[in-house]
Amino acid sequence: MNLLSILLIGIAMSTDAFAAAVGKGAAMQRPRFVEALRIGLIFGVIEAVTPLIGWLLGSAAAQYITAWDHWIAFGVLGALGLHMIWNGFRPEAAEEATPRRHGFWNLAATGFATSIDAMAIGVSLAFLDAPIGVVAAVIGLCTLVMVTTGIMLGRVLGALAGKRAEIIGGVILIVIGSVILYEHLTGAA
């Protein structure tokens, strides 16, 4: 496996996290770069660990992971998206109580949901004698950069969308989950 292939895997594995980050950034109240970097680190670490877990699971669990990964991602992203939409429709007084920062567990759940495909990639890399440590590091770094960029891009979109930005973020998460499900059910993935 050459460096270009590894880089392309890293970029491909981080695109759904990027889209989720745009939605998160839009829902946040003017996130700063430090907050975007924090979220990028959370997503990046999770995205780097999941292919390692997949690689460790190997062929014994491959059929179970690939058989259910799209349903897990769809369920988690859909639930998070619906929660964001519900928060977006809450009255003004409730919106003021919404924290500026997204909690660690909320971010970790989103990061995990967008990285299940990376776990499946890890399983397949176990059969290719690929340098899993390098691949995992590249996936994590690509995700760190793309999520940090996505949060900051979402900041601009959030300012344009006004107080209903969280609804947009929730819709984005639901769309990502639906696309993952559609791709796996139709064989487009």
Provide the descriptors you would attach to this structure in a database record.
mainly alpha, 0% strand, 189 residues, globular
Architecture overview:
With 189 residues, this protein is mostly helical. 86% of the residues lie in helices and 0% in strands. The chain has one domain. It is built from six helices and no strands. Helix 1 runs parallel beside helix 5, helix 2 crosses helix 4 and helix 2 crosses helix 5. About 4% of the residues have low confidence.
Topology:
Blueprint: H1 3-27, H2 33-89, H3 92-97, H4 104-125, H5 132-161, H6 165-186
Helix pairs in contact: 1-2, 1-4, 1-5, 1-6, 2-4, 2-5, 2-6
Write a compact overview of the structure shown.
The protein is mainly alpha-helical. Helices cover 86% and strands 0% of the residues. The protein has six helices and no strands.
The rounded Rg comes to 17 Å
Q: Portion of residues in helices?
A: over 70%
Mean pLDDT: 78
Distance between the termini: 20 Å
Quick one: biggest sheet?
A: none
Q: Give the count of structural domains.
A: 1
